[in-house]
Design a protein that fits this description.
41% of the residues lie in helices and 21% in strands. By secondary structure, the protein is an alpha+beta fold. It has 2 domains: 87 residues; 239 residues, Bira Bifunctional Protein, Domain 2 (BirA Bifunctional Protein, domain 2, 2-Layer Sandwich), CATH 3.30.930.10. It has a 7-stranded mixed β-sheet with strand order 1-5-6-10-9-8-7, with helices on both faces. Strands 2-4-3 form a 3-stranded antiparallel β-sheet. β7 and β8 form a beta hairpin. α1 runs antiparallel to α2, α2 packs antiparallel against α4 and α5 crosses α10. The chain is rod-shaped and about 140 Å long. It binds phenylalanine.
Length: 347
């Protein structure tokens, strides 16, 4: 091996030993810098006789190119190593399970309400919505509730510290029955002057409030009001319609109804509706699900209708109670605790 080959070999070794870019630049200076070993060789050419210069110069240039090539290779290798190191440091484990966004779902009471709306919708009922903060007139007076009736007492009803234009405290509606009046009034106005007023067929589901709290009562609960008023409706329509609804809601025909005489100021006669399952875990027990009755003539008048022509039937059912029965939930408060371990079972 001649001395130029050795020089190239030494440079390659020096480059290979450089493990950082700075080391490599130092090693480069030793061979290719101003007073580097290759540069010294080129400078030494000047002292040679002319006829030797050319051949010797060509040899040194070959050696120089080899050193430069070795340097370029090593630079590339160091850059590759650095990139690989960076990638390793920032590595993602793509096999880790992702963090999923929780999927939302309807609340079981909301689901029950949607079922109720779908069933009554299929029977041609409109779905109406109304205020939860009500006036005394809509919650009580229009519904033929005598001034001293216990339903008006401070014990049952939440009042709002604001008075209406009649000087009476506003209330958080204790039932959805005010919607009977609100909806019928709007309907009567819309069809005023018509020879024949189309029947009113509406349900009004929503939140209701009472000063009450135990396993089957919550201060906020849900009701669905139903109203059917026309010139040709009778109690049997209420009965058939409610049976149809309740069997659809529970998805069974093995279910019977009972109308038990009762009292509400706004219906006469009035009845509680009880249901009994003929099969399943609740079999054989009468369960109260609704108040109902023929709309009182005084209430028909407050709707802006003529009690001599218009007869109506109304009911008010507890949506939470229906949801409890449908899903087999024993304590109403579970629905409103917001515990996802409970709620996610209904997804
Ligand atoms: N509003 C009554 C209640 O809350 C239920 C009801 C509605 C009764 C309609 C008769 C007619 O108990």
């Amino acid at each position: 091996m001649n001395e130029l080959d050795q020089l190239v070999q030494a440079a390659k070794t020096a480059f290979a030993e450089a493990t950082a870019v700075a080391d490599l630049e130092n090693a480069k200076a030793k061979y290719l810098g101003k007073s580097g070993r290759i540069t010294e060789q080129l400078k030494a050419l000047a002292a040679l006789p002319v006829d030797e210069k050319k051949a010797r110069g060509a040899l040194i240039n070959v050696a120089k190119q080899q050193v430069e090539a070795a340097l370029a290779d090593r630079r590339q290798a160091l850059a590759d190593a650095e990139l690989a190191q960076q990638l390793r440091a920032q590595a993602l484990d793509v096999t880790l399970p992702g963090r999923r966004r929780g999927t939302g779902a309807l609340h079981p009471v909301g689901r029950a309400q949607e079922r109720i709306e779908a069933i009554f919708g299929s029977m041609g009922f409109d779905i109406a919505d109304g205020p939860e903060i009500e006036t005394d007139w809509y919650s009580f007076t229009a519904l033929n509730n005598p001034e001293n009736h216990p339903a008006r007492s401070m014990q049952d009803t939440f009042y709002v510290d604001v008075k209406d234009s009649q000087g009476r405290w506003l209330n958080l509606r204790p039932h959805t029955s005010p919607m009977q009046i609100r909806y019928a009034q709007a309907h009567a106005r819309t069809h005023a002057g018509a020879a024949v007023m189309p029947d009113i067929r509406v349900i009004a589901p929503g939140r209701t409030y009472r000063v009450d709290s135990d396993a089957t009562h919550s201060p906020m609960f849900h009701q669905v009001e139903g109203l059917w008023v026309g010139e040709n409706v009778s109690f049997k329509d209420l009965k058939a319609m409610y049976l149809n609804f309740i069997q659809a809601f529970f998805e069974t025909t093995a279910l019977v109804l009972r109308f038990r005489p009762s009292y509400f100021p706004f219906t006469e006669p009035s009845a509680e509706i009880d249901i009994m399952f003929e099969r399943g875990p609740l079999q054989g027990r009468w369960l109260e699900v609704s108040g109902s009755g023929q709309v009182h003539p005084q209430v028909i008048r407050h709707m802006g209708l003529d009690p001599e022509r218009h007869v109506g039937f109304a009911f008010g059912s507890g949506i939470d109670r229906l949801a409890m029965l449908r899903y087999g939930v024993g304590d109403l408060r579970l629905f409103f605790d917001g515990d996802l371990r409970f709620l996610s079972q209904f997804q």
